[in-house]
């Protein structure tokens, strides 16, 4: 089984917490769903809280103190909300908020820089920080008892890899547990679509990218280099988008409306537009809790550039402590800053120029994300743009791209179609038909078959 180079899990067996696994689909999910269905309404939050902790514990069973760390985070942040809200002095209140933020981010930083990340720590840390800031701004939420808060923090559909939740978007669902058959059916549909994207598309693209890595970047032709970076771009999209759809589907099955995390980002006409569509809950988190408090765009150009730099360097660090993540964040800062200063006006007038620009910008930005070694990045760039290499040190057409292109042609074509809104529009139009149900059944069982024969990988964003 191939494992993403971005993935680290302390060598633990996490099969039960991977949504695209036999253990999860045929053991944990049906058993827990039956228990939850027959649980009295007054106890449903407690049931979800306990079940989510067991779900997390299974994933970290080889290092159970990760669960203890998670519980400490939940308890401390819950108590801190009383501490922050209990202060009437504005300066003291701000200091207490700062203490809470430092507490959370310090723990996250320790694990980031030691490269031993407990499952989901980036997601639940940012969720806790958002909670404290909301308490500071709006006052403590009176309906947030400990069980509700614990459920909000641990809810198993999202706790491992997002989306990042806000209390204001979740509190209503925590108080209202009416789940109809329509919600159950729609949840199962979204779960199946996400499963297919993960297993049938992302995993195949991961296999192609791994084959190219195994050949060695020095030995590939220019067409194969472009094929490889396109494959990685598809892999990371369908991996994370697939997970997000599965999380949304699972949430709907249990009465929760998790926020949308993707809006066809590869159709964007600028990098600014791209990051409004990609990992939308993370982007909105940085916007609301970092960018706007610093002054956002409603300030001088110099301060706006500073604000963008802070946000994008923090975004890079959120994804990892390696230098390549910082470089990746800095590259995105440069692109977004240049767009805001001049390019966005051009792209709005001539959208086709924006699409052409993004055809290059998207895979090149992911290249820094995918390869951590600076020497290897430069070698790959020379393969992409052979005029940068010394004469005779590159190959335009070695025939290698034909071999891999034929092997993965169907998956590549499917990826090109599925990054557009067209398939979803067709699905919504024929959603109630027998053919729609039949297609989803085929996707589900073919995905299960692929998982059964070992063609499955951990989600890439488990690494964050």
Automatic annotation (TrEMBL):
Recorded hits in Pfam families, A to Z, give: MBOAT
Localization recorded for this chain is: Cell membrane
Top-level division of the source organism's lineage: Bacteria
InterPro entries on file = Ac/AlaTfrase_AlgI/DltB (IPR024194), AlgI (IPR028362), MB_O-acyltransferase (IPR051085), MBOAT_fam (IPR004299)
The enzyme's E.C. designation = 2.3.-.-
Is Acyltransferase there in the keyword field?
Answer: yes
Question: What is this entry's stated membrane topology?
Answer: Multi-pass membrane protein
> Keyword annotations for this protein?
Acyltransferase, Cell membrane, Membrane, Transferase, Transmembrane, Transmembrane helix
Residue ranges spanning the membrane: these are 14-35, 65-84, 96-113, 240-258, 308-338, 350-370, 377-398, 404-422, 434-454
Positions in coiled-coil regions? none
Question: Which GO molecular-function terms appear in the entry?
Answer: acyltransferase activity
Keyword Cell membrane part of the UniProt annotation? yes
Similarity section: Belongs to the membrane-bound acyltransferase family.
Put simply, this protein is called: MBOAT family O-acyltransferase
Organism listed in the record: Hominiventricola aquisgranensis
């Amino acid at each position: 089984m191939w494992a993403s180079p971005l993935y680290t899990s302390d060598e633990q067996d996490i099969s039960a917490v991977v949504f695209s696994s036999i253990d999860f689909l045929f053991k944990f999910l049906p058993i827990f769903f039956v228990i939850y269905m027959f649980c009295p309404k007054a106890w449903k939050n407690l049931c979800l809280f306990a079940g989510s902790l067991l779900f997390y514990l299974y994933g970290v069973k080889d290092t159970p103190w990760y669960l203890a760390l998670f519980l400490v985070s939940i308890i401390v942040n819950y108590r801190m909300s009383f501490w922050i809200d209990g202060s009437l002095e504005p300066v003291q209140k701000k200091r207490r908020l700062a203490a809470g933020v430092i507490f959370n981010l310090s723990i996250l930083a320790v694990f980031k820089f030691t490269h031993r990340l407990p499952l989901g720590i980036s997601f639940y840390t940012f969720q806790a920080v958002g909670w404290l800031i909301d308490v500071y701004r709006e006052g403590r939420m009176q309906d947030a008892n400990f069980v509700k808060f614990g459920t909000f923090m641990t809810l198993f559909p999202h706790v491992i890899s997002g989306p990042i939740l806000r209390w204001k978007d979740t509190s209503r669902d925590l108080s209202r547990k009416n789940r109809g058959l329509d919600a159950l059916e729609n949840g199962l549909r979204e779960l199946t679509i996400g499963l297919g994207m993960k297993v049938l598309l992302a995993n195949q693209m991961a296999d192609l990218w791994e084959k190219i890595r195994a050949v060695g970047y020095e030995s590939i032709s220019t067409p194969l280099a472009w094929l490889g970076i396109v494959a990685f771009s598809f892999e990371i999209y369908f991996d994370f988008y697939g997970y997000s759809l599965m999380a949304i589907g699972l949430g709907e099955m249990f009465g929760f409306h998790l926020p949308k995390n993707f809006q066809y980002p590869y159709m964007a006409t600028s990098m600014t537009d791209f990051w409004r569509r990609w990992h939308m809950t993370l982007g909105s988190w940085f916007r609301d809790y970092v960018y706007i408090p610093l002054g956002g765009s409603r300030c001088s150009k110099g301060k706006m550039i500073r604000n963008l730099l802070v946000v994008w360097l923090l975004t890079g660090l959120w994804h990892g402590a390696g230098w390549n993540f910082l470089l990746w964040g800095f590259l995105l800062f440069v692109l977004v800053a240049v767009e805001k200063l001049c390019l966005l006006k051009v792209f709005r007038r001539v959208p086709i120029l924006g699409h052409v620009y993004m055809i290059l910008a998207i895979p090149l930005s992911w290249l820094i994300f995918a390869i951590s070694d600076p020497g290897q990045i430069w070698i790959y760039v020379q393969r992409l743009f052979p005029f940068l290499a010394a004469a005779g040190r590159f190959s335009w057409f070695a025939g290698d791209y034909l071999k891999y292109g034929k092997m993965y042609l169907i998956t590549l074509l499917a990826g090109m179609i599925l990054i557009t809104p067209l398939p979803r529009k067709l699905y919504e139009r024929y959603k109630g038909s027998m053919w729609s149900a039949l297609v989803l059944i085929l996707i589900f069982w073919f995905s299960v078959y692929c998982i059964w024969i070992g063609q499955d990988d951990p989600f890439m964003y488990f690494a964050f």
